[in-house]
Amino acid sequence: MIEQNPVAHLRVLKPFPFVYAFYDGRIPDVRLHAETENWLDDGGFALGTASYVLVDEDDALVYDTHLSPAHARKIRTFLDRLGVKRIRVVLSHHHLDHVAGNEAFADCEIIAQELTLRHLEKNRAGIEAGTYHGQPAIKPLVLPKTIFEKHLKLEVGRLDVDLHHANIHSDDATLLHIEELGLLFAGDTLEDTVTYVAEPRALDTHLAELDRLWGWNVSRILPNHGDPLVISAGGYEKPLIRATQQYIRMLKRCVAEPELREEKLEALIAGPLQAKWVNYFAPYEAVHRNNVAEVVAAHGN
User: Fold this and answer.
1) Cα–Cα dist 76/104, whole Å
2) Angle at the Cα of 101 (from 66 to 195), degrees rounded to 5?
């Protein structure tokens, strides 16, 4: 069924007093764009997507602009009703389900890592035409205005927020870290049930970067794709990082051990599931199959 109201299922979670999570997706038998395969329905909506907003005093920081302009406008209306006077946006990376709503914040400062801008500029024509990763098109695609390279410190009301560049999932990832609270907004660098492999030749880099991340003060993690019940309850614990590393190492083994390629995801990640580091969500079986195919193809087997 195609939902006529694109934000009919958008819900607002509040994992912390100063954090709002705008969550949509994981709605059985409902699609937002089309019955045919597309990046919105078969990606972010099927797996569930959260965009986050930090609010303190009259200051707000939006972390990703969600699946569509309609979602972003709903977030903007919510913040207006809160009486927020300053809104800034941070993009976690360049993938379409994270930048689709930029238009609703065109009058705000939009911040991104420099590679995010490069990716968006390079592919802007295809994104606006709906030929880059397909429909739906994002037109106009509003580009970030403020660029950083490795690290940028922001103040959001009384909150000290650090933006860090990382090469995990994509080469342009921006992590949002509130060190004094041990709170990490992870974008797509961490995901429940498993990571989506977008750059199969960079797995060793991703593993090393996850080791770097393990050394940070992190007690709770809020990913963009995860279980809404876990997000609502304050997010994931730090071993989500280790669960991600274990899964990536298993994917690497699939290159030399063909028998692993046919195993079900649930069996391959039985340890992290039993430890409750992650939760099983059946649509990730398809993600896993794609991951295996991409990794095997990238390594020539």
Assistant:
1) 7
2) 35
282 burial via Cβ count (<10 Å: 0-12, 13-18, 19+) = exposed
- Which alpha helices (DSSP H) does the chain contain, by range? 46-47, 69-82, 96-99, 114-129, 203-214, 228-232, 240-256, 265-268, 270-274, 284-298
Task: Give the whole-number percent of the chain exceeding pLDDT 70.
Answer: 100
Q: Which of 101, 92, 99, 61 is nearest to 79 (CA)?
A: 61
- Of 244, 164, 255, residue with least CA distance to 211: 244
> Residue 52 is inside which H or E element, if any?
strand 49-56
Interval 3-20: pLDDT, tens: 999 999 999 999 999 999
Residue labelled with tokens 């490069």: 118
| CA dist 90 → 3, 142, 238, 266 (Å) | 29, 13, 23, 34
> Looking up tokens 């991340």, which residue turns up?
213
Token pair for 146: 């403020």
d(CA 106, CA 89): 10
Residue type at position 222:
L
Burial of 28-59, coded b for 16+ CB within 10 Å and e otherwise, reads eeebbbeeeebbbbbbbbbbbbbbbbbbbeeb
